[in-house]
Amino acid sequence: MTLLEARGLVRHFGGLKAVDGVDFDLAEGEIHALIGPNGAGKTTFVSLLSGRTPVQSGTIRFEGRDITRLPAHVRVRQGIAYTFQITQVFANLTVFDNVALAVQGRGASKRLARETRAALDRVGLGDRADDVAGTLSYGHQRLLEIAMGLALNPRLLILDEPTQGLAIGEIEAFKRLIEGLVPERTVLLIEHNMDVVMDLAHRITVLNFGQVLATGTPEAIRANAAVQAAYLGGQA
Questions:
Q1: Cα–Cα distance measured from residue 19 to residue 45, given in angstroms and rounded to the nearest whole number
Q2: This prediction's pTM
Q3: In the chain, what are the domains?
Q4: Looking at residue 156, what is its pLDDT?
Q5: For the chain, which end, N or C, has fewer CB atoms within 10 Å of the first or last residue's CB respectively?
């Protein structure tokens, strides 16, 4: 079943064609990776999907409903959570309170403590609940941001460079975490670490100059000559 469908998405910034006529399908319950060279349009594309950046033309449908013009906060309520490439936590609040705000944001205040701790335990931060978020390492702040996303109980979780700043052991724990989310949730992953992409993704879409270069299984993408020339064999 298709969870999200985008057709003909366009977003230009002056002469820069950041997203230029992209068609994209996301299947329910899959881990789908979005890769491409720096400047390929990946973050702009997921910003269009999440509503943080308005679409200039094209359509986005989520669970069969047209969400193209809905603002980001409405898309969150409909089940789309987006964690950012640059960590977005409340540095002066505790780890617990950061996640509790996300739980409250979807009206689950009666189960606040239980659901907050469940989200923290899911990402391995249960023992850091009372720490001030700004004192965490960068990698742990990324995990906190994922916990905040999970606390929204999304159907679709969009992760932008989630392993950036994580140690090797933390990356392995992250991969187990993401594998455990499906098929209950669908994950769209922007990631430069190709080992993570190849290990996790069911399908991969490659963007280049704001357009789709290829979509397929990890095996098909690895063997694709155009992808090798544009990305895998070049500078990530």
A1: 6
A2: 0.90
A3: 1-39+54-65+155-236 (3.40.50.300)
A4: 97
A5: N
